[in-house]
Protein backbone atom coordinates (compact mmCIF):
# COMPACT_ATOMS: atom_id res chain seq x y z
CA UNK A 1 0.00 0.00 0.00
CA UNK A 2 1.28 3.42 -0.88
CA UNK A 3 1.81 6.42 1.32
CA UNK A 4 -1.73 7.77 1.31
CA UNK A 5 -2.81 11.37 1.07
CA UNK A 6 -3.98 13.22 4.15
CA UNK A 7 -7.69 13.09 4.60
CA UNK A 8 -9.66 15.35 6.88
CA UNK A 9 -12.03 14.04 9.51
CA UNK A 10 -15.04 14.85 7.36
CA UNK A 11 -13.74 12.72 4.52
CA UNK A 12 -12.81 9.93 6.86
CA UNK A 13 -16.28 9.98 8.28
CA UNK A 14 -17.71 9.79 4.78
CA UNK A 15 -15.48 6.84 4.03
CA UNK A 16 -16.61 5.10 7.21
CA UNK A 17 -20.22 5.70 6.27
CA UNK A 18 -19.64 4.38 2.79
CA UNK A 19 -18.28 1.17 4.24
CA UNK A 20 -21.67 0.55 5.74
CA UNK A 21 -23.72 1.01 2.56
CA UNK A 22 -25.32 -2.16 1.35
CA UNK A 23 -23.94 -3.99 -1.62
CA UNK A 24 -26.55 -2.85 -4.12
CA UNK A 25 -26.03 0.78 -3.36
CA UNK A 26 -22.30 0.28 -3.21
CA UNK A 27 -22.50 -1.47 -6.54
CA UNK A 28 -24.25 1.50 -8.09
CA UNK A 29 -21.76 3.95 -6.66
CA UNK A 30 -18.96 1.77 -7.85
CA UNK A 31 -20.31 1.39 -11.33
CA UNK A 32 -20.60 5.09 -11.86
CA UNK A 33 -17.13 5.64 -10.44
CA UNK A 34 -15.18 3.13 -12.53
CA UNK A 35 -17.22 3.66 -15.68
CA UNK A 36 -16.10 7.28 -15.65
CA UNK A 37 -12.44 6.26 -15.72
CA UNK A 38 -10.71 7.57 -18.82
CA UNK A 39 -7.80 5.32 -19.69
CA UNK A 40 -4.53 7.25 -20.00
CA UNK A 41 -1.35 5.15 -20.16
CA UNK A 42 -0.43 1.71 -18.92
CA UNK A 43 2.14 2.09 -16.12
CA UNK A 44 2.96 -1.60 -15.85
CA UNK A 45 1.45 -4.95 -16.71
CA UNK A 46 2.30 -8.58 -16.20
CA UNK A 47 1.14 -11.27 -18.56
CA UNK A 48 2.40 -13.82 -16.05
CA UNK A 49 0.33 -12.41 -13.18
CA UNK A 50 -2.61 -11.14 -15.26
CA UNK A 51 -2.37 -7.63 -13.85
CA UNK A 52 -2.42 -4.19 -15.38
CA UNK A 53 -1.75 -0.80 -13.74
CA UNK A 54 -3.35 2.13 -15.55
CA UNK A 55 -3.06 5.88 -15.06
CA UNK A 56 -6.01 8.03 -16.14
CA UNK A 57 -8.75 10.32 -14.89
CA UNK A 58 -12.06 10.04 -13.08
CA UNK A 59 -14.18 13.20 -13.36
CA UNK A 60 -11.08 15.34 -13.96
CA UNK A 61 -9.21 13.87 -10.99
CA UNK A 62 -5.98 11.92 -11.45
CA UNK A 63 -6.62 8.22 -10.82
CA UNK A 64 -4.83 4.91 -10.93
CA UNK A 65 -6.79 1.73 -11.59
CA UNK A 66 -5.21 -1.65 -10.91
CA UNK A 67 -6.88 -4.71 -12.40
CA UNK A 68 -5.98 -8.28 -11.49
CA UNK A 69 -7.80 -11.41 -12.57
CA UNK A 70 -8.88 -13.65 -9.71
CA UNK A 71 -7.27 -17.08 -9.23
CA UNK A 72 -9.01 -20.22 -10.53
CA UNK A 73 -10.22 -22.20 -7.53
CA UNK A 74 -11.11 -25.86 -7.24
CA UNK A 75 -14.68 -25.23 -6.06
CA UNK A 76 -15.77 -23.49 -9.26
CA UNK A 77 -14.00 -25.89 -11.64
CA UNK A 78 -16.86 -28.27 -12.49
CA UNK A 79 -19.24 -25.37 -13.11
CA UNK A 80 -16.64 -23.48 -15.15
CA UNK A 81 -15.98 -26.50 -17.39
CA UNK A 82 -19.70 -27.14 -17.90
CA UNK A 83 -20.98 -23.60 -18.43
CA UNK A 84 -18.21 -21.87 -20.40
CA UNK A 85 -18.41 -21.47 -24.13
CA UNK A 86 -15.50 -23.30 -25.71
CA UNK A 87 -13.42 -22.89 -28.84
CA UNK A 88 -10.91 -25.49 -29.99
CA UNK A 89 -7.66 -23.77 -30.97
CA UNK A 90 -5.20 -26.57 -31.62
CA UNK A 91 -5.12 -30.34 -31.56
CA UNK A 92 -1.91 -32.37 -31.90
CA UNK A 93 -1.57 -35.96 -30.77
CA UNK A 94 -2.59 -36.17 -27.08
CA UNK A 95 -2.53 -32.37 -26.69
CA UNK A 96 -5.32 -29.94 -27.44
CA UNK A 97 -5.91 -26.34 -26.48
CA UNK A 98 -9.17 -24.45 -26.11
CA UNK A 99 -10.30 -20.96 -25.28
CA UNK A 100 -12.99 -21.08 -22.59
CA UNK A 101 -15.24 -18.09 -21.93
CA UNK A 102 -16.84 -18.48 -18.50
CA UNK A 103 -20.04 -16.66 -17.51
CA UNK A 104 -19.53 -13.35 -15.62
CA UNK A 105 -20.18 -14.76 -12.14
CA UNK A 106 -17.15 -17.05 -12.59
CA UNK A 107 -14.84 -14.34 -13.99
CA UNK A 108 -13.86 -11.87 -11.32
CA UNK A 109 -11.38 -9.06 -11.75
CA UNK A 110 -10.11 -7.54 -8.53
CA UNK A 111 -9.98 -3.80 -9.09
CA UNK A 112 -8.26 -1.21 -6.94
CA UNK A 113 -8.88 2.49 -7.51
CA UNK A 114 -6.62 5.22 -6.13
CA UNK A 115 -8.26 8.61 -6.58
CA UNK A 116 -7.14 11.31 -6.34
CA UNK A 117 -3.70 9.91 -7.16
CA UNK A 118 -0.49 11.93 -6.84
CA UNK A 119 2.67 11.87 -8.90
CA UNK A 120 4.13 9.63 -6.16
CA UNK A 121 1.48 7.00 -6.76
CA UNK A 122 2.14 7.11 -10.48
CA UNK A 123 5.85 6.65 -9.86
CA UNK A 124 5.19 3.80 -7.46
CA UNK A 125 3.42 1.77 -10.14
CA UNK A 126 5.42 2.82 -13.20
CA UNK A 127 7.73 0.02 -14.22
CA UNK A 128 11.33 1.00 -13.59
CA UNK A 129 14.70 -0.65 -13.49
CA UNK A 130 15.79 -1.79 -10.02
CA UNK A 131 19.20 -1.50 -8.36
CA UNK A 132 20.61 -2.85 -5.10
CA UNK A 133 21.81 -0.31 -2.56
CA UNK A 134 24.05 -1.19 0.38
CA UNK A 135 23.12 1.20 3.16
CA UNK A 136 25.70 1.54 5.95
CA UNK A 137 24.88 2.95 9.38
CA UNK A 138 26.36 6.27 8.20
CA UNK A 139 24.31 6.21 5.00
CA UNK A 140 21.16 5.78 7.05
CA UNK A 141 22.00 8.77 9.24
CA UNK A 142 23.20 11.06 6.47
CA UNK A 143 21.02 10.04 3.53
CA UNK A 144 18.00 7.87 4.37
CA UNK A 145 16.82 9.41 7.65
CA UNK A 146 16.92 13.02 6.36
CA UNK A 147 15.06 11.81 3.26
CA UNK A 148 12.32 10.11 5.33
CA UNK A 149 11.94 13.19 7.53
CA UNK A 150 11.87 15.62 4.63
CA UNK A 151 9.23 13.67 2.71
CA UNK A 152 6.79 13.61 5.65
CA UNK A 153 5.02 10.59 4.14
CA UNK A 154 1.46 10.57 5.36
CA UNK A 155 0.44 7.45 7.21
CA UNK A 156 -3.05 8.85 7.94
CA UNK A 157 -4.61 5.75 6.42
CA UNK A 158 -2.67 3.65 8.98
CA UNK A 159 -3.95 5.84 11.82
CA UNK A 160 -7.49 5.48 10.41
CA UNK A 161 -7.14 1.73 10.80
CA UNK A 162 -5.64 1.90 14.30
CA UNK A 163 -8.40 4.31 15.38
CA UNK A 164 -11.16 2.22 13.71
CA UNK A 165 -12.10 5.08 11.43
CA UNK A 166 -11.66 2.80 8.45
CA UNK A 167 -11.52 -0.91 7.70
CA UNK A 168 -12.70 -1.72 11.24
CA UNK A 169 -14.79 -4.60 9.90
CA UNK A 170 -11.69 -6.13 8.26
CA UNK A 171 -9.72 -6.53 11.50
CA UNK A 172 -8.92 -10.19 12.14
CA UNK A 173 -7.25 -9.71 15.51
CA UNK A 174 -6.25 -6.90 17.82
CA UNK A 175 -4.04 -6.64 20.85
CA UNK A 176 -4.91 -3.14 22.13
CA UNK A 177 -1.81 -2.75 24.33
CA UNK A 178 -0.32 0.67 23.46
CA UNK A 179 3.26 -0.58 23.84
CA UNK A 180 3.27 -4.13 22.48
CA UNK A 181 -0.14 -4.29 20.79
CA UNK A 182 -1.05 -4.41 17.09
CA UNK A 183 -3.88 -4.77 14.64
CA UNK A 184 -3.92 -7.72 12.23
CA UNK A 185 -5.88 -7.40 8.99
CA UNK A 186 -5.86 -8.78 5.44
CA UNK A 187 -3.68 -6.97 2.93
CA UNK A 188 -5.51 -5.49 -0.06
CA UNK A 189 -3.66 -7.93 -2.31
CA UNK A 190 -5.61 -10.81 -0.74
CA UNK A 191 -9.26 -11.38 -1.69
CA UNK A 192 -9.71 -13.81 1.25
CA UNK A 193 -11.31 -16.44 -0.98
CA UNK A 194 -8.57 -19.05 -0.51
CA UNK A 195 -5.66 -19.46 1.90
CA UNK A 196 -3.10 -20.28 -0.84
CA UNK A 197 -2.39 -16.61 -1.20
CA UNK A 198 -3.14 -15.59 2.37
CA UNK A 199 -1.60 -12.21 3.09
CA UNK A 200 -2.15 -10.30 6.33
CA UNK A 201 -0.44 -7.29 7.85
CA UNK A 202 0.21 -6.65 11.54
CA UNK A 203 0.38 -2.91 12.21
CA UNK A 204 1.79 -1.88 15.59
CA UNK A 205 -0.09 0.59 17.78
CA UNK A 206 3.13 2.43 18.65
CA UNK A 207 3.78 5.32 16.33
CA UNK A 208 7.48 5.88 17.03
CA UNK A 209 8.98 2.99 15.08
CA UNK A 210 9.62 3.73 11.42
CA UNK A 211 11.26 0.52 10.24
CA UNK A 212 13.66 -2.34 10.92
CA UNK A 213 16.41 0.28 11.42
CA UNK A 214 14.71 1.54 14.61
CA UNK A 215 14.54 -1.86 16.30
CA UNK A 216 16.72 -2.78 19.29
CA UNK A 217 16.46 -5.46 21.97
CA UNK A 218 13.97 -3.12 23.70
CA UNK A 219 11.41 -4.13 21.08
CA UNK A 220 11.83 -7.89 21.63
CA UNK A 221 8.60 -8.12 23.68
CA UNK A 222 6.71 -6.32 20.88
CA UNK A 223 8.18 -8.52 18.15
CA UNK A 224 7.61 -11.77 20.07
CA UNK A 225 4.07 -10.67 20.80
CA UNK A 226 3.35 -10.05 17.11
CA UNK A 227 4.84 -13.38 16.16
CA UNK A 228 3.02 -15.42 18.80
CA UNK A 229 -0.39 -13.76 18.73
CA UNK A 230 -0.35 -13.19 14.97
CA UNK A 231 0.37 -16.87 14.28
CA UNK A 232 -2.23 -17.92 16.85
CA UNK A 233 -4.92 -15.70 15.32
CA UNK A 234 -4.17 -16.97 11.80
CA UNK A 235 -4.28 -20.58 12.98
CA UNK A 236 -7.59 -19.94 14.71
CA UNK A 237 -9.27 -18.06 11.85
CA UNK A 238 -7.76 -19.73 8.78
CA UNK A 239 -6.27 -23.02 10.12
CA UNK A 240 -2.93 -22.14 8.56
CA UNK A 241 0.02 -23.21 10.76
CA UNK A 242 3.33 -21.40 11.30
CA UNK A 243 5.14 -23.86 9.02
CA UNK A 244 3.08 -22.54 6.08
CA UNK A 245 3.80 -18.85 6.72
CA UNK A 246 6.56 -16.41 5.92
CA UNK A 247 6.46 -13.85 8.72
CA UNK A 248 8.64 -10.98 7.62
CA UNK A 249 9.46 -7.28 7.42
CA UNK A 250 10.44 -5.25 4.39
CA UNK A 251 13.45 -2.98 4.20
CA UNK A 252 12.86 -0.38 2.89
CA UNK A 253 9.20 -0.62 3.86
CA UNK A 254 6.60 1.01 1.62
CA UNK A 255 5.42 3.17 4.55
CA UNK A 256 7.36 4.21 7.63
CA UNK A 257 5.14 2.87 10.40
CA UNK A 258 6.34 -0.51 11.69
CA UNK A 259 4.39 -3.44 10.26
CA UNK A 260 4.93 -7.16 9.74
CA UNK A 261 3.80 -9.27 6.76
CA UNK A 262 2.22 -12.73 7.23
CA UNK A 263 2.25 -14.44 3.81
CA UNK A 264 1.34 -17.95 2.76
CA UNK A 265 4.46 -19.93 1.86
CA UNK A 266 2.54 -21.16 -1.21
CA UNK A 267 2.20 -17.59 -2.43
CA UNK A 268 5.17 -16.39 -4.41
CA UNK A 269 4.28 -12.79 -3.55
CA UNK A 270 6.29 -9.77 -4.69
CA UNK A 271 8.59 -8.47 -1.95
CA UNK A 272 9.50 -11.92 -0.58
CA UNK A 273 12.93 -11.86 -2.21
CA UNK A 274 16.08 -12.01 -0.09
CA UNK A 275 16.99 -8.48 -1.28
CA UNK A 276 14.04 -6.91 0.55
CA UNK A 277 12.56 -9.35 3.08
CA UNK A 278 13.73 -10.12 6.62
CA UNK A 279 12.21 -13.07 8.50
CA UNK A 280 10.83 -11.97 11.86
CA UNK A 281 12.43 -15.08 13.42
CA UNK A 282 15.85 -13.89 12.20
CA UNK A 283 15.20 -10.33 13.37
CA UNK A 284 14.33 -11.57 16.87
CA UNK A 285 17.39 -13.80 16.96
CA UNK A 286 19.74 -11.07 15.74
CA UNK A 287 18.42 -8.59 18.33
CA UNK A 288 18.81 -11.19 21.08
CA UNK A 289 22.49 -11.49 20.27
CA UNK A 290 23.22 -7.88 19.44
CA UNK A 291 20.81 -5.17 20.51
CA UNK A 292 22.16 -2.70 17.92
CA UNK A 293 22.26 -5.23 15.05
CA UNK A 294 19.86 -3.28 12.80
CA UNK A 295 21.38 0.08 13.79
CA UNK A 296 24.95 -0.94 13.00
CA UNK A 297 24.75 -3.39 10.12
CA UNK A 298 24.87 -2.51 6.48
CA UNK A 299 21.45 -3.33 5.02
CA UNK A 300 20.95 -4.16 1.36
CA UNK A 301 17.74 -3.07 -0.34
CA UNK A 302 16.40 -2.72 -3.88
CA UNK A 303 15.46 0.70 -5.24
CA UNK A 304 13.87 1.69 -8.51
CA UNK A 305 15.64 4.03 -10.91
CA UNK A 306 13.07 6.79 -10.29
CA UNK A 307 13.16 6.42 -6.50
CA UNK A 308 14.11 9.71 -4.85
CA UNK A 309 16.13 7.80 -2.26
CA UNK A 310 18.21 6.19 -5.01
CA UNK A 311 18.85 9.66 -6.37
CA UNK A 312 20.09 10.74 -2.92
CA UNK A 313 22.51 7.79 -2.76
CA UNK A 314 23.72 8.66 -6.25
CA UNK A 315 24.26 12.32 -5.31
CA UNK A 316 26.28 11.17 -2.30
CA UNK A 317 28.47 9.06 -4.57
CA UNK A 318 27.26 5.87 -2.88
CA UNK A 319 26.01 4.18 -6.06
CA UNK B 1 5.04 -28.32 -23.23
CA UNK B 2 5.51 -31.85 -21.98
CA UNK B 3 7.59 -34.54 -23.61
CA UNK B 4 5.17 -35.34 -26.38
CA UNK B 5 4.32 -38.81 -27.49
CA UNK B 6 5.71 -39.78 -30.85
CA UNK B 7 3.20 -39.23 -33.57
CA UNK B 8 3.46 -40.76 -36.98
CA UNK B 9 3.24 -38.74 -40.13
CA UNK B 10 -0.34 -39.80 -40.72
CA UNK B 11 -1.46 -38.53 -37.32
CA UNK B 12 0.45 -35.26 -37.75
CA UNK B 13 -1.28 -34.80 -41.07
CA UNK B 14 -4.63 -35.40 -39.39
CA UNK B 15 -3.78 -32.81 -36.72
CA UNK B 16 -2.86 -30.29 -39.39
CA UNK B 17 -6.15 -30.93 -41.11
CA UNK B 18 -8.06 -30.50 -37.88
CA UNK B 19 -6.45 -27.10 -37.36
CA UNK B 20 -8.26 -26.00 -40.51
CA UNK B 21 -11.75 -27.00 -39.35
CA UNK B 22 -13.97 -24.02 -38.87
CA UNK B 23 -14.56 -22.53 -35.46
CA UNK B 24 -18.17 -23.71 -35.12
CA UNK B 25 -17.32 -27.32 -35.70
CA UNK B 26 -14.26 -27.06 -33.48
CA UNK B 27 -16.35 -25.39 -30.83
CA UNK B 28 -18.81 -28.24 -30.82
CA UNK B 29 -16.07 -30.85 -30.63
CA UNK B 30 -14.41 -28.94 -27.86
CA UNK B 31 -17.53 -28.45 -25.83
CA UNK B 32 -18.36 -32.12 -25.78
CA UNK B 33 -14.78 -33.04 -24.92
CA UNK B 34 -14.14 -30.70 -21.98
CA UNK B 35 -17.66 -30.91 -20.59
CA UNK B 36 -17.09 -34.64 -20.15
CA UNK B 37 -14.06 -33.99 -17.93
CA UNK B 38 -14.60 -35.38 -14.45
CA UNK B 39 -12.52 -33.37 -11.99
CA UNK B 40 -10.27 -35.61 -9.91
CA UNK B 41 -7.62 -33.80 -7.89
CA UNK B 42 -5.76 -30.54 -8.27
CA UNK B 43 -2.11 -31.29 -9.04
CA UNK B 44 -0.88 -27.73 -8.72
CA UNK B 45 -2.20 -24.20 -8.87
CA UNK B 46 -0.83 -20.71 -8.68
CA UNK B 47 -2.89 -17.84 -7.34
CA UNK B 48 -0.20 -15.46 -8.57
CA UNK B 49 -0.28 -16.77 -12.12
CA UNK B 50 -3.98 -17.68 -12.14
CA UNK B 51 -3.35 -21.23 -13.26
CA UNK B 52 -4.63 -24.61 -12.12
CA UNK B 53 -3.51 -28.12 -13.16
CA UNK B 54 -6.17 -30.80 -12.68
CA UNK B 55 -6.04 -34.59 -13.00
CA UNK B 56 -9.28 -36.39 -13.90
CA UNK B 57 -10.97 -38.43 -16.57
CA UNK B 58 -12.58 -37.86 -19.96
CA UNK B 59 -14.75 -40.79 -21.09
CA UNK B 60 -12.81 -43.24 -18.88
CA UNK B 61 -9.42 -42.04 -20.12
CA UNK B 62 -6.89 -40.42 -17.80
CA UNK B 63 -6.68 -36.71 -18.55
CA UNK B 64 -4.93 -33.57 -17.33
CA UNK B 65 -6.59 -30.21 -17.86
CA UNK B 66 -4.57 -27.01 -17.42
CA UNK B 67 -6.46 -23.75 -17.10
CA UNK B 68 -4.85 -20.32 -17.22
CA UNK B 69 -6.63 -17.00 -17.27
CA UNK B 70 -5.64 -14.73 -20.14
CA UNK B 71 -3.68 -11.53 -19.49
CA UNK B 72 -5.51 -8.19 -19.32
CA UNK B 73 -4.54 -6.19 -22.39
CA UNK B 74 -4.70 -2.48 -23.01
CA UNK B 75 -6.99 -2.76 -26.05
CA UNK B 76 -9.92 -4.28 -24.11
CA UNK B 77 -9.60 -1.99 -21.07
CA UNK B 78 -12.18 0.70 -21.93
CA UNK B 79 -14.77 -1.90 -22.89
CA UNK B 80 -14.05 -3.99 -19.78
CA UNK B 81 -14.47 -0.98 -17.48
CA UNK B 82 -17.73 0.08 -19.17
CA UNK B 83 -19.44 -3.29 -19.57
CA UNK B 84 -18.53 -5.23 -16.40
CA UNK B 85 -20.87 -5.49 -13.46
CA UNK B 86 -19.21 -3.90 -10.42
CA UNK B 87 -19.39 -4.41 -6.68
CA UNK B 88 -17.72 -2.07 -4.22
CA UNK B 89 -15.84 -4.08 -1.62
CA UNK B 90 -13.92 -1.55 0.46
CA UNK B 91 -13.31 2.18 0.64
CA UNK B 92 -10.65 3.88 2.82
CA UNK B 93 -9.36 7.38 2.18
CA UNK B 94 -8.25 7.61 -1.45
CA UNK B 95 -8.33 3.81 -1.91
CA UNK B 96 -11.28 1.67 -2.96
CA UNK B 97 -11.56 -1.87 -4.21
CA UNK B 98 -14.18 -3.42 -6.46
CA UNK B 99 -15.00 -6.79 -7.93
CA UNK B 100 -15.63 -6.48 -11.65
CA UNK B 101 -17.38 -9.25 -13.57
CA UNK B 102 -16.68 -8.81 -17.28
CA UNK B 103 -18.89 -10.33 -19.98
CA UNK B 104 -17.73 -13.73 -21.35
CA UNK B 105 -16.12 -12.39 -24.52
CA UNK B 106 -13.66 -10.41 -22.34
CA UNK B 107 -12.87 -13.31 -19.97
CA UNK B 108 -10.79 -15.92 -21.69
CA UNK B 109 -9.30 -18.98 -20.03
CA UNK B 110 -6.55 -20.75 -21.99
CA UNK B 111 -7.18 -24.45 -21.56
CA UNK B 112 -4.82 -27.28 -22.40
CA UNK B 113 -6.01 -30.88 -22.38
CA UNK B 114 -3.65 -33.85 -22.27
CA UNK B 115 -5.57 -37.06 -22.98
CA UNK B 116 -4.79 -39.86 -22.59
CA UNK B 117 -2.33 -38.79 -19.86
CA UNK B 118 0.29 -41.10 -18.36
CA UNK B 119 1.62 -41.34 -14.79
CA UNK B 120 4.64 -39.35 -15.99
CA UNK B 121 2.43 -36.43 -16.98
CA UNK B 122 0.75 -36.53 -13.60
CA UNK B 123 4.08 -36.49 -11.75
CA UNK B 124 5.35 -33.68 -13.94
CA UNK B 125 2.51 -31.39 -12.90
CA UNK B 126 2.01 -32.55 -9.30
CA UNK B 127 3.15 -29.97 -6.82
CA UNK B 128 4.37 -31.06 -3.46
CA UNK B 129 3.38 -28.94 -0.56
CA UNK B 130 6.21 -26.97 1.04
CA UNK B 131 6.76 -26.38 4.76
CA UNK B 132 9.13 -24.14 6.69
CA UNK B 133 11.51 -25.87 9.07
CA UNK B 134 13.35 -24.03 11.84
CA UNK B 135 16.61 -25.86 12.31
CA UNK B 136 18.39 -25.19 15.60
CA UNK B 137 22.08 -25.92 16.18
CA UNK B 138 21.02 -29.17 17.90
CA UNK B 139 18.70 -30.11 15.02
CA UNK B 140 21.60 -29.73 12.62
CA UNK B 141 23.82 -32.01 14.70
CA UNK B 142 21.20 -34.65 15.46
CA UNK B 143 19.02 -34.64 12.32
CA UNK B 144 20.47 -32.81 9.31
CA UNK B 145 24.16 -33.76 9.55
CA UNK B 146 23.51 -37.51 10.03
CA UNK B 147 21.05 -37.30 7.10
CA UNK B 148 23.65 -35.64 4.83
CA UNK B 149 26.30 -38.18 5.82
CA UNK B 150 24.00 -41.17 5.40
CA UNK B 151 22.80 -40.11 1.97
CA UNK B 152 26.35 -39.79 0.61
CA UNK B 153 25.07 -37.44 -2.07
CA UNK B 154 27.38 -37.73 -5.01
CA UNK B 155 29.04 -34.50 -6.00
CA UNK B 156 31.18 -36.24 -8.62
CA UNK B 157 29.76 -33.91 -11.25
CA UNK B 158 31.11 -30.96 -9.21
CA UNK B 159 34.56 -32.58 -9.01
CA UNK B 160 34.42 -33.17 -12.78
CA UNK B 161 33.97 -29.42 -13.25
CA UNK B 162 36.75 -28.51 -10.81
CA UNK B 163 39.10 -31.02 -12.51
CA UNK B 164 38.12 -29.84 -16.04
CA UNK B 165 36.80 -33.29 -16.89
CA UNK B 166 33.46 -31.74 -17.81
CA UNK B 167 32.09 -28.35 -18.83
CA UNK B 168 35.62 -26.92 -19.11
CA UNK B 169 34.55 -24.85 -22.10
CA UNK B 170 31.80 -23.20 -20.06
CA UNK B 171 34.08 -21.71 -17.39
CA UNK B 172 33.81 -17.92 -17.30
CA UNK B 173 36.48 -17.35 -14.65
CA UNK B 174 38.75 -19.37 -12.40
CA UNK B 175 40.88 -18.58 -9.39
CA UNK B 176 42.96 -21.78 -9.03
CA UNK B 177 44.02 -21.16 -5.41
CA UNK B 178 43.30 -24.41 -3.52
CA UNK B 179 42.24 -22.58 -0.35
CA UNK B 180 40.37 -19.46 -1.55
CA UNK B 181 39.90 -20.22 -5.23
CA UNK B 182 36.76 -21.08 -7.21
CA UNK B 183 35.34 -21.74 -10.64
CA UNK B 184 32.63 -19.47 -12.06
CA UNK B 185 30.30 -20.81 -14.77
CA UNK B 186 26.77 -20.27 -16.10
CA UNK B 187 23.96 -22.20 -14.45
CA UNK B 188 22.04 -24.53 -16.75
CA UNK B 189 18.91 -22.43 -16.18
CA UNK B 190 20.55 -19.61 -18.13
CA UNK B 191 20.66 -19.82 -21.91
CA UNK B 192 23.19 -16.92 -22.03
CA UNK B 193 21.11 -15.20 -24.71
CA UNK B 194 20.36 -12.09 -22.63
CA UNK B 195 21.59 -10.69 -19.30
CA UNK B 196 18.06 -10.09 -17.89
CA UNK B 197 18.09 -13.63 -16.51
CA UNK B 198 21.85 -13.93 -15.97
CA UNK B 199 22.60 -16.81 -13.60
CA UNK B 200 26.10 -18.00 -12.72
CA UNK B 201 27.48 -20.28 -10.03
CA UNK B 202 30.79 -19.99 -8.18
CA UNK B 203 31.98 -23.41 -6.98
CA UNK B 204 34.83 -23.42 -4.44
CA UNK B 205 37.91 -25.58 -4.98
CA UNK B 206 37.94 -26.65 -1.30
CA UNK B 207 36.06 -29.87 -0.72
CA UNK B 208 35.53 -29.67 3.05
CA UNK B 209 32.71 -27.09 3.19
CA UNK B 210 29.23 -28.52 2.83
CA UNK B 211 27.06 -25.45 3.30
CA UNK B 212 26.45 -22.17 5.12
CA UNK B 213 26.40 -24.17 8.39
CA UNK B 214 30.13 -24.93 8.04
CA UNK B 215 31.23 -21.32 7.63
CA UNK B 216 33.14 -19.42 10.33
CA UNK B 217 35.28 -16.28 10.30
CA UNK B 218 38.10 -18.53 9.02
CA UNK B 219 36.36 -18.54 5.64
CA UNK B 220 36.12 -14.74 5.36
CA UNK B 221 39.08 -14.55 2.90
CA UNK B 222 37.40 -17.20 0.72
CA UNK B 223 34.01 -15.46 0.78
CA UNK B 224 35.44 -12.01 0.10
CA UNK B 225 37.48 -13.45 -2.73
CA UNK B 226 34.40 -14.99 -4.36
CA UNK B 227 32.48 -11.75 -4.00
CA UNK B 228 35.20 -9.50 -5.37
CA UNK B 229 36.53 -11.63 -8.20
CA UNK B 230 33.12 -13.01 -9.14
CA UNK B 231 31.63 -9.53 -9.50
CA UNK B 232 34.72 -8.35 -11.39
CA UNK B 233 34.54 -11.25 -13.85
CA UNK B 234 30.80 -10.70 -14.47
CA UNK B 235 31.34 -6.98 -15.04
CA UNK B 236 34.15 -7.72 -17.47
CA UNK B 237 32.36 -10.44 -19.43
CA UNK B 238 28.72 -9.27 -19.30
CA UNK B 239 28.95 -5.57 -18.26
CA UNK B 240 26.53 -6.26 -15.39
CA UNK B 241 27.45 -4.26 -12.25
CA UNK B 242 27.18 -5.39 -8.62
CA UNK B 243 24.06 -3.24 -8.10
CA UNK B 244 22.20 -5.48 -10.60
CA UNK B 245 23.14 -8.80 -8.94
CA UNK B 246 21.88 -10.88 -6.06
CA UNK B 247 24.96 -12.72 -4.79
CA UNK B 248 23.66 -15.40 -2.45
CA UNK B 249 23.80 -18.86 -0.94
CA UNK B 250 20.98 -21.35 -0.49
CA UNK B 251 20.16 -23.10 2.74
CA UNK B 252 19.54 -25.99 2.39
CA UNK B 253 21.65 -26.09 -0.78
CA UNK B 254 20.69 -28.54 -3.52
CA UNK B 255 24.15 -30.16 -3.23
CA UNK B 256 26.51 -30.17 -0.28
CA UNK B 257 29.62 -28.62 -1.79
CA UNK B 258 29.90 -24.90 -1.07
CA UNK B 259 28.75 -22.71 -3.97
CA UNK B 260 27.48 -19.16 -4.45
CA UNK B 261 24.75 -17.97 -6.85
CA UNK B 262 25.13 -14.79 -8.93
CA UNK B 263 21.66 -13.89 -10.28
CA UNK B 264 20.37 -10.89 -12.20
CA UNK B 265 18.21 -8.69 -9.98
CA UNK B 266 15.75 -8.48 -12.89
CA UNK B 267 15.27 -12.25 -12.83
CA UNK B 268 12.62 -13.43 -10.40
CA UNK B 269 14.31 -16.85 -10.18
CA UNK B 270 13.09 -19.69 -7.96
CA UNK B 271 15.13 -19.92 -4.75
CA UNK B 272 15.58 -16.16 -4.27
CA UNK B 273 12.95 -16.03 -1.53
CA UNK B 274 13.87 -14.93 1.99
CA UNK B 275 13.02 -18.44 3.24
CA UNK B 276 15.94 -20.02 1.37
CA UNK B 277 18.39 -17.35 0.21
CA UNK B 278 21.19 -15.64 2.17
CA UNK B 279 22.97 -12.63 0.67
CA UNK B 280 26.74 -13.16 0.63
CA UNK B 281 27.15 -9.57 1.89
CA UNK B 282 25.08 -10.45 4.97
CA UNK B 283 26.94 -13.72 5.50
CA UNK B 284 30.28 -11.90 5.45
CA UNK B 285 28.99 -9.26 7.85
CA UNK B 286 27.51 -11.77 10.27
CA UNK B 287 30.75 -13.79 10.36
CA UNK B 288 32.77 -10.62 10.96
CA UNK B 289 30.72 -9.92 14.07
CA UNK B 290 30.27 -13.48 15.29
CA UNK B 291 32.51 -16.23 13.97
CA UNK B 292 30.06 -18.97 14.98
CA UNK B 293 26.95 -17.15 13.66
CA UNK B 294 25.98 -19.90 11.22
CA UNK B 295 26.92 -22.68 13.64
CA UNK B 296 24.80 -21.35 16.49
CA UNK B 297 21.81 -19.64 14.91
CA UNK B 298 18.52 -21.29 14.13
CA UNK B 299 18.19 -21.33 10.34
CA UNK B 300 14.82 -21.44 8.59
CA UNK B 301 14.47 -23.36 5.34
CA UNK B 302 11.65 -24.68 3.12
CA UNK B 303 11.21 -28.41 2.48
CA UNK B 304 8.82 -30.29 0.22
CA UNK B 305 6.43 -32.81 1.70
CA UNK B 306 8.24 -35.68 -0.08
CA UNK B 307 11.68 -34.52 1.09
CA UNK B 308 13.46 -37.18 3.19
CA UNK B 309 14.91 -34.50 5.46
CA UNK B 310 11.41 -33.22 6.26
CA UNK B 311 10.49 -36.80 7.21
CA UNK B 312 13.47 -36.89 9.60
CA UNK B 313 12.34 -33.65 11.29
CA UNK B 314 8.84 -35.07 11.57
CA UNK B 315 10.11 -38.33 13.12
CA UNK B 316 12.06 -36.28 15.65
CA UNK B 317 8.89 -34.39 16.58
CA UNK B 318 10.36 -31.14 15.29
CA UNK B 319 7.56 -30.37 12.82
Compute the average pLDDT of chain A: 88
- Give start-end ranges of low-pLDDT stretches of chain A: 1-31
Largest sheet of chain A: 6 strands, antiparallel
Structural class of chain A: alpha+beta
Radius of gyration of chain A: 22 Å
Distance between the termini of chain A: 27 Å
Just give the CATH class of the largest domain in chain A. Alpha Beta
The percent of residues in helical segments of chain A reads 25-40%
**What general form of chain A does the structure show?**
globular
Measured by DSSP, the beta-strand proportion of chain A falls in: 25-35%
Number of helices of chain A: 10
CATH architecture name of the largest domain in chain A: 2-Layer Sandwich
Output the CATH topology of the largest domain in chain A: HIT family, subunit A
Largest interface: A-B, 123 and 110 residues
Strand order of the largest sheet of chain A: 8-9-10-12-11-13
Assembly type of the shown chains? homodimer
CATH superfamily of the largest domain in chain A: HIT-like
Amino acid sequence: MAAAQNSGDAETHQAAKRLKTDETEAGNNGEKFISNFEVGRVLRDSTREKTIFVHGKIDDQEAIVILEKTPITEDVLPEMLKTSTQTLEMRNDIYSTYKLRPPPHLSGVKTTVICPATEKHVKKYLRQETFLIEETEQDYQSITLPYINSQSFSVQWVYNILEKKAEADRIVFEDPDPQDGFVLLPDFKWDQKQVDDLYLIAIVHRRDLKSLRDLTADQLPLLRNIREKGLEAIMKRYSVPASKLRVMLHYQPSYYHLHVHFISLDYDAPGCGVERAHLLADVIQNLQHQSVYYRKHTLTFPARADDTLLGKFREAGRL
